[in-house]
Amino acid sequence: MKERIHACMWFVHVEGARRFQLENDPEEEKLEHMRRQLCLPTDGVIKVQQVVVIVHHIDHYFVVVADHIENAMYVFGRHVGKDLAGVYLQDDDDWRSWKGDLLWVRLAKLFQWEGCSLAPNLMLSVNWSQVGDQLLALILADKVHGQNGLDCGAVVCSVTKAILTDGVEFDQEGMVVAPTIECSHYGRLRLLNENIQNLQRCHHLYETLGSDMFVVPEESASYAMSVGLEGFIRADTIRKRLAKARDRCTVCKQVRQMKVAEQEVEDGTEEQEDEWEQQNPKSDSEDGELECIEGPRNDCSLAVVPPYLTRNKKKKKLMEKARRRVPVKIRAPTTKRGKAIPMKPQRFQMLPRNKRHDFDDYYGGPTLEDMMELQRPGGLEAYPNSWDVAPTIRSPWELFKNYGFTLEPEFALMFNRQEPLMAKKHLLPVGDLNSPTVEEDNDDWEGLGMEEMLAMAPTEGSSDSMNVFVRGVMPDGETLIKFDPARDAYPLRLDEYILSLDIDTIIWVTYKLRVLTEISVHVLPYTGAKPPIWKNNHAYAEVLMPQSDRDKDMGGRTEWFSNRKSLSAIPHIHFAKVGQGSGSFNVHVMFPRMMHKNPISGRSATLIPVEIQSLWFTDIVYPAILAGENPSTVSYKDYTLTEWRWKTSINDRFSGKDKLVVVQGGYLTRMQEVMRDIVDSDPDEYDRYGSFFFVMDCRGIKDSTNIVVGHEGDPYEELCRKFPACDWEYMEKRQNGQLLMDLGMGFHPNPDDKTPLVFLWDLMRVNESYDTAGMNAGKVHHAGMMGRYGGRQSEMEQKRQAIVQLCFRSTYSLIYQPFRKSQAGEINMCEDIDAYEVNSTYRNNLESHIMMMRGSLRKSFGAREEMRGSGTSIRQVMQDATALVSVFKK
Q: Is residue 32 within 8 Å of residue 109, measured between CB atoms?
């Protein structure tokens, strides 16, 4: 075993100190055994250094440092009372009561030091009323966390580690000072994790080296290690309670408040600038000619975010986009410098309120300041102490908890009213047909089509060929080539087009889930590498921000500021499935109270850990399922999480990923009530799951709802007929949530001579159409290296989409379909490093794409438009979609 010869201090554990506190002198054999335990040198003289000892006396732990060089002894944390806090001479009678005199003499005997005195000349007792972090120790020297007589075990571990790292510290006057340590809750968490890790390592060593070399452990210890120490001691429950206790700890709050106060001083100049901007608000419009409507101001509620909520960087960031759902002044949508269709403003219509019962818990949760304290720091700020540079330990319970977000009854609504306005005009506006589309040739460049370039192409692989197709230079070496696919346009008659309509995607955001048939509920945690909704699906929920301490102290609530959050930014897991096969609807349960940023990456943390999910399933979902079952079906569903995992496992090493149980649609409403009752029954345990709501979605159903224009049929009728499990009339009503649909419009070539054709969107015309519809900039996707042809995706301006009820538009050509392998339109290519190294991964990827290109030479690929909007608006525009498509394709 490696000997620690170069240590600055020696350490004697509590069991060793306990032996020295006995009246009888320890035998030499036991002393030799302790020397081996402490890894002391076996030959030569042991260096005289300070000795750190943990002492236990009358149900209390404290730390003693014996300095035989200076002939002094320092006692840390002997007393916990506030009246005994400070640094003073150790009482001789108290010193002898915990056998300090025997400890001093026997430590010298243990280390075989000769010539040591029988008692120290100086004995100092260092006691404190608090324990805090470095910031408080520097600013508020004597105002720290009081020792309560219960946390002394965690306190002495932190004190010992601090002393072993930094030594005994003295102030400028030479007086010993108390070490800077962390809160006891954090210390307990550290002890739990390190003890479990060390015990598992020791048990592994014991099994590896064989039982003959060690004392056989007790049967209970062997059993605990065999079944898993984490589960045996219920470590997850301990971490959860420690996280809860730490969030309520006044010390942690004081530390965070001091840091916030320090930041407010630094941000004083920035605060003045913020207030000036509020006094001189910038116009939201680009043309400065917006029409406004004055609304009645509610004197009981704040209309705009007050300056005290943007006083420091963290508050300002949290409240950056917060606003009242119904502002004092409502503005009309911008006209995009006169390009967009002009519209009048429209006020958001609130839902009826239940005056006897609040929709959510608006008064009992964490405040805005609490949320700032609850969000643990990341990076360098995560180092809690100078003596411990390990990153902050974070359990899932410390991160995924209640941050104070709640919901209003209108949280799911993205649009102002039930009925849209001018939706048909915004579906496929043509734009300015008189704008020029083709530029004439000049002396600097010459326009060529694909067929013309191939006809004049030099020998394949030659430098001349590279000049033409890579550099874009004519064979004369001077004239540039302007590529113009319009020269290769293939004329088609109107009857050689096929126009199709379909409904491709359904998204329903709701507080109360409802289906007409049965629903299959998940009973195992979600284990995917990404959350179910891992990218923005252009559906949003309005989340109410916590009120501030200032507002809460005034009584009631005047701050009703909300933030528009993408569903992909809200933590969520799977909940159920409706239907079977590829056309099934996935139901996800969303937990807005857990919303937070990853302290390392700074991104929204939405993939909920298994520990948090397990409590949700065992304590909330399982009881809610069984509450509606009768004795004839209980035997199929009454199992614990561990039992469900075993039942779904394929073998001893692989556990099944998915398991569903059937719940009848008639019981679904009652099941949700039971789930919410369980959450409300114990806020301390389940408050993180409060305010949960559901998202039901189904993607890629265009084949099931597709109809060809000119033939009989309607996509919505096909949807209702082929998906009878959904109550479409109920889902479309505004008071039941927000229903979104994707209307797909396909343009497909069907020439009489069966010539393979590819449709390309002219981006100049597409951009004019987008600008006329009031769309945002979005993203433009070019077809290969063609600057003018490709596709575009963007959302509609928020004020406009709230009125029109069309929120997202996507225009693209179907030429990408042969290369699409994954979901959400992603096309997988090799990494850049693979292409740089020209390795096998790059070559295989290249060969695969060439294979798909060659297979597509004799195929035709059309183009497609998709528009996402409310169920009501999509049904409206679908009635005239055929005429609009016919005009747009011209």
A: no
Give the DSSP H or E segment for 309: none
Cα separation, 584 vs 602, whole angstroms: 34
Residue 864's nearest CA partner among 843, 850, 879, 885 is: 885
Give CA–CA dist 374/397, Å, rounded: 11
Q: How far apart are CA 404 and CA 411, in angstroms?
A: 15
DSSP structure string for 328-380: SEEEPPP-TTTTSPP----PPPPPPP-TTS-SS--SSS--HHHHHHHS---GG
Query: Is 380's pLDDT higher than 60?
Result: no
Give the per-residue SS3 of 679-725: HHHCHHHHHHHCCCEEEEEECCCHHHHCEEECECCCHHHHHHHHCCC
Alpha helices in 433-516 (DSSP H): 450-455, 463-466
SS3 733: coil
Q: Cα(401)–Cα(423) distance, rounded to whole angstroms?
A: 41
| Rounded Cα gap, residues 877 and 871, in angstroms | 10
In the beta sheet, which residues pair with residue 743? 503, 867
Counted residue by residue, the chain has a size of 890
Give the range among 375-384, 537-546, 808-817 with minimum mean pLDDT. 375-384
pLDDT value of residue 824: 53
Beta bridge partners of 694: 510, 589
Q: Is the pLDDT of residue 184 over 60?
A: yes
CA–CA gap between residue 695 and residue 575 (Å, rounded): 9
- What the block records as the tokens of 708 is 């060809």
Amino acid at the residue 81: G
3-class secondary structure, 661? strand
Assess contact for 806 and 426: CB atoms under 8 A. yes
- Residue-wise pLDDT for 815-861, tens only, equals 888 888 765 556 777 888 999 999 999 999 889 989 999 999 999 99
- Contact present, 591 and 692 (Cβ < 8 Å): yes
b/e per residue 347-381 (b: at least 16 CB within 10 A): ebeeeeeeeeeebbbbeebbbbbbbbbbbbebeee
Could you tell me whether strands 572-578 and 660-663 are parallel, antiparallel, or unpaired per DSSP bridges? unpaired
Beta carbons of 514 and 730 less than 8 angstroms apart:
yes
Q: Are strands 292-294 and 329-331 parallel, antiparallel or unpaired?
A: antiparallel
Higher pLDDT, 547 or 653: 547
Residue 340: how many other CB atoms lie within 10 Å: 23
Contact 820, 828 (CB under 8 A): no
Tokens 């219920």 belong to: 234
Tens of pLDDT, residue by residue over 507-516, are 999 999 999 9
Whole-number Å distance between alpha carbons of 132 and 140: 10
pLDDT digits (tens, 9 = 90+) for 476-497: 888 898 888 889 999 888 888 8
CA–CA dist 624, 512 (Å, integer): 15
Q: pLDDT for 414-431, tens place per residue?
A: 999 999 999 999 998 987
Q: How far apart are CA 246 and CA 139, in angstroms?
A: 22
> So what's the pLDDT on residue 140?
35
User: What DSSP letter does each residue of 569-627 carry, written as one string?
Assistant: GS-EEEEEEESSGGGPEEEEEE-GGG--B-TTT-SB--B--HHHHHHHIIIIIHHHHHT
Q: Is-contact 345 332, C-beta < 8 A?
A: yes
The C-alpha atoms of residue 756 and residue 637 are separated, in whole angstroms, by: 56
Backbone angles phi, psi at 194, to 5 degrees: -70, -35
Using DSSP bridges, classify how beta strands 519-522 and 445-448 pair: parallel, antiparallel or unpaired: unpaired
DSSP codes of every residue in 159-213:
HHHHHHHH-S-B-TTS-B-PPP---HHHHHHHHHHHHHHHHHHHHHHHHHH-GGG
The model's pTM: 0.82
